[in-house]
Design brief:
Layout lengths: L4 H4 L7 H38 L6 E4 L4 E7 L4 E7 L2 E6 L3 E6 L21 H6 L4
Antiparallel strand pairs: 1-2, 1-5, 2-3, 3-4
Length: 133
């Protein structure tokens, strides 16, 4: 009723550039999520699947529940038999194996002693700067 004509005419037609500027932050957020979250998770899943696929008799493993054992028999695509103590064997799903400690050839994976975390090697640039050899 008491609206001035200037307010009524302020609407104006939008344009293609308004939609682009509105969508740009969403596209940037998706790109950040892809490179920081989605892509690293896919790489981690791929290496885990490869590790599970290459399990052989004699491999030392840690299950998802924290049980240390040695693979005694690969039963099928989804199950393995591991020995957790002298004469104690359990059948587990391959997907529950979290870490491969040593390979079936008897050599340690990445030359780390069995049971030692992989990051205690002291190599790399940071290790050289800190004086480790």
């Amino acid at each position: 009723m008491f609206i001035s004509p200037a307010w009524a005419q302020a609407g104006g037609a939008g344009g293609g550039s308004d939609i682009f500027t509105a969508m740009l932050p969403l596209v940037l957020i998706f790109a950040v999520f892809y490179f920081l979250l989605i892509r690293p998770q896919q790489k981690k899943m791929k290496t885990h699947q490869q590790m599970i696929g290459n399990l052989r008799r004699g491999d030392k493993v840690i299950t998802g529940g924290g049980v240390y054992g040695s693979v005694t028999k690969v039963l099928n695509e989804g199950e393995v038999m591991i020995e957790i103590a002298e004469g104690v064997r359990i059948k587990i799903a391959r997907g529950t194996i979290a870490t491969l400690l040593t390979t079936h050839e008897g050599g340690a994976k990445d030359a780390a002693p069995a049971g030692a975390p992989a990051n205690q090697g002291g190599g790399g640039l940071l290790g050289k700067l800190m004086g480790k050899k």
